[in-house]
TrEMBL record:
<dbReference type="Pfam" id="PF03022">
    <property type="entry name" value="MRJP"/>
</dbReference>
<dbReference type="GO" id="GO:0005576">
    <property type="term" value="C:extracellular region"/>
</dbReference>
<dbReference type="InterPro" id="IPR017996">
    <property type="entry name" value="MRJP/yellow-related"/>
</dbReference>
<feature type="signal peptide">
    <location>
        <begin position="1"/>
        <end position="19"/>
    </location>
</feature>
<keyword id="KW-0964">Secreted</keyword>
<dbReference type="InterPro" id="IPR011042">
    <property type="entry name" value="6-blade_b-propeller_TolB-like"/>
</dbReference>
<protein>
    <submittedName>
        <fullName>Major royal jelly protein</fullName>
    </submittedName>
</protein>
<keyword id="KW-0732">Signal</keyword>
Length: 365
């Protein structure tokens, strides 16, 4: 595929995505597995032995947990109450201010990205942006990886993926990527302001343009990301799509300029407004469609099909594929939250996490 151009970028949209779509598959069984009558979550991760964790989004200032383990169907503050008790004025480096994404790493630890701001679009606090590594055997924080050196007051560290000893992170506020080297702790920004990291159209959910609490259109820049099973390709997009890819060698090479790096970015698929993604061991990427309430499946060649469509899948967020070949889908309803619905909360409880069998194994880079 050729390197992207702005003209190619602007021509992509929902209509193109639908035109390229393959025949829809037969409906799969979508099973509710976790519910909450009071809490809003935007992700799920599962250990090999079945432990389940989610990041939670506070709906009231200074109240509510940020990270929880599901025990007997109910989330408990994890790894302890102290890490979940941050309030305005506290040290932002020693507790979760705005946990946004989690996953079990290839080392078996639980990793958590904290955007360091208590509200969507807020400036990160000193010491707030961080990646927190938690030892699941001891249920204690093993290490905190500060990210502040690679952020600005506009930054919103959104999500992350592993590739060997590298961690790739997306900055949805100051559009760009961040590369963390776990061997020496160094941080580098990449593709800053590149068209592939910048949102090019309004963010939508249930076919409605989403507005901040100040009634302003919301822009969520570089957001979803995945690494191919062989570690060769890095896929990423703004929340509104489309999906791009670049060979990881161009991200990993410190000597390459951003201008040169940008020449190797290619369009991959015309995704639409998306809440979350996952990738399987065959290289298929699953992406939620927040307007049409479905999960799309993109084959390694970029061709598209619909995995499942269901009115319950309101804002499918960060998904997870378990060891038994099951896809876990949080119906986060983020588009109905105060932060994205002009200050009015329309979330319909209970919030639900679904699971469906897809019969393929996960990637554990």
């Amino acid at each position: 595929m050729r390197a992207i151009t702005m003209a190619a970028l602007l021509c992509l949209g929902a209509g193109v995505a639908q035109a390229q779509e393959a025949d829809t598959q037969a409906p799969a069984e979508l099973t509710p597995v976790l519910k909450s009558e009071t809490l809003v979550f935007n992700g799920i991760t599962r250990t090999k032995d079945g432990r389940l964790f989610s990041p939670f989004q506070r709906q009231q200032k200074d109240k509510g947990i940020q990270l929880g383990e599901w025990i007997d169907g109910k989330p408990q503050a994890y790894p302890d109450t102290a890490w979940n008790s941050w309030k305005t004025g506290d040290d932002a480096s020693k507790a979760f201010v705005g946990a946004n994404a989690i996953r079990i790493g290839p080392d078996g630890d639980l990793w958590v990205v904290d955007k360091g701001a208590a509200e969507l679009g807020g400036a990160p606090l000193p010491g707030g942006p961080k990646l927190v590594q938690i030892d699941l055997s001891a249920n204690k924080v093993r290490k905190v990886w500060p990210l502040e050196a690679a952020t600005t007051q506009k930054s919103f560290i959104d999500d992350f993926r592993f590739n060997g000893r590298k961690v790739y992170l997306t900055d949805a506020g100051q559009p760009g990527l961040i590369v963390l080297d776990l061997d020496d702790g160094s941080l580098r920004r990449a593709l800053d302001g590149h068209p592939s990291t910048v949102s090019q159209r309004p963010l939508t959910g249930e076919n409605k343009v989403l507005l901040s609490e100040k009634d302003q259109p919301i822009a969520i820049h570089a957001d979803q990301l995945e690494v191919s099973p062989d570690g060769k390709f890095f896929y990423y997009q703004a929340c509104t799509g489309p999906l791009y890819r670049i060979e990881t060698k161009w991200l990993d090479d410190k000597s390459v300029s951003d201008a040169e790096r940008g020449k190797h970015v290619a369009l991959f698929a015309a995704t639409v407004s998306t809440g979350g993604t996952a990738i399987d061991a065959d290289g298929n990427i699953y992406a939620s469609d927040t307007d049409n309430l479905r999960i799309l499946k993109f084959a390694p060649d970029g061709s598209q099909s619909t995995l499942v469509q269901d009115p319950r899948l309101v804002w499918g967020d960060a998904m997870w594929i378990d060891e038994e070949g099951g896809l876990w889908i949080p119906a986060a309803q983020m588009n109905r939250s105060k932060a994205m619905n002009g200050g009015t909360n329309r979330i319909a409880f209970p919030t639900t996490i679904f699971r469906m069998a897809i019969g393929v194994k996960p990637v554990r880079n």
